[in-house]
Amino acid sequence: MLALYFILLVCVPLGVIMTVTSPRLAITVAVTQPAVLVLQNSNNALTSPRVITSQPLDHDELLLRQASKANPNPSPKFPKKLAFMFLTTNSLPLAPLWELFFNQSSHHKSLYNVYVHVDPTQKHKPGSYGTFHNRIIPSSKPAYRHTPTLISAARRLLAHALLDDPSNYMFILLSPSCIPLHSFNFTYKTLVSSTKSFIEILKDEPGWYERWAARGPYAMFPEVPPEEFRIGSQFWTLTRAHAQLVVSDVEIWSKFNKSCVRKDICYPEEHYFPTLLNMRDPQGTVSAAVTHVDWSVNEHGHPRTYKPSEVRAGLIKKLRSARPRYGDGNRTRKDPFLFARKFSPAGINQLMDITRSVIFNDSALV
């Protein structure tokens, strides 16, 4: 007991005390250097302290912990907002199109927020003016394919958006090759009227078992058994409650935050989010994405990219008229695609030419 009191006396004054609870353990971490971890079991008996690191807690961990405390419900005092989260390496070549999308009306400025995650090691120019000015989140880190870093980047975006504005209601993850398919009004009304997230959740897709076992044959046990594994698009739209669920998750993230032994089938960003949401709240999701993508062409793991010569009114009409694939086999819903990818940066002029007459004109194409 004397040793225990000595530990508490030394640790408590040195830093801020944070507590993370789980059904089995209450974990108290003194954020000092070194950090000391004290485990409190369900019978309130304290175990011996142990040093978990010689450095302060990782900034991501602190950010996610703070975001996990955010109110899962949007502020009732203000209009609901859309959080547009762009995940890019160094630039947003289609920013001029998005600039017009966000500024169709001065009234729209109170209905959205923009967040950008970039690779800080690269020269990035996501937009130094207008809507994208000063919208790069400060915790951005490099993100690479075939690694969990793409998941981490999306979780950082969610955390910043949760903490930044309590009115953020829907959280939309977008790539630099994404475009809107409708006006801001249409997009806003469609999303804020939904009480569910839009995320593709597919079961028993070709090669699913190999993807599940990509970290090793036993790496996902026991938290994620094979029958719980799901596949879906990297780009989704989550409610505020689900955004908080993602940043609060430790258990499922611990299984996906591992290196793969087979890189050729390692796409954790396409697995973590659908698996987590399906395990935690399948009834709270529409098991389809509202971002259109054409996988009829697969170029080294990348979907079809629309070239400048393909950008015309007919293409937009085709994308608008398509309907999502529902992982649960739903045949009654007819949700519209709100966004589409991938569009070549070289096609920005062609896109701008049809922006007002086609893309933002909801009555022109139905």
Question: Would you spell out the secondary-structure blueprint of this structure?
Answer:
Layout (H helix, E strand, L loop, with lengths): L1 H10 L5 E5 L4 E5 L4 E6 L9 E4 L5 H10 L12 E7 L7 H8 L9 E6 L31 H16 L3 E7 L4 E2 L3 H9 L4 E2 L9 H5 L24 E3 H9 L2 H6 L15 H9 L4 E2 L4 E2 L20 H9 L17 E2 L7 H6 L1 H5 L7
Helix pairs in contact: 2-4, 2-7, 4-7
Provide a short characterization of the protein structure.
The protein has 366 residues and is an alpha/beta fold. The protein is built from twelve helices and 13 strands.
Mean pLDDT score: 85
- Indicate the proportion of strand residues: 5-15%
Distance between the termini: 73 Å
Outline the biggest β-sheet. Answer: 4 strands, antiparallel
Total number of helices: 12
**Helix-strand category:** alpha/beta
The largest sheet has its strands arranged as: 1-2-3-4
Please compute the radius of gyration using only Cα atoms. 22 Å
Helix-strand sequence = HEEEEHEHEHEEHEHEHHHEEHEHH
Low-confidence region ranges: 1-57
* Number of β-strand runs: 13
The helix fraction, in percent, is: 25-40%
Shape: globular
Protein name: Glycosyl transferase family 14
Main location: membrane
GO molecular function: glycosyltransferase activity
InterPro entries: BC10-like (IPR044174), Glyco_trans_14 (IPR003406)
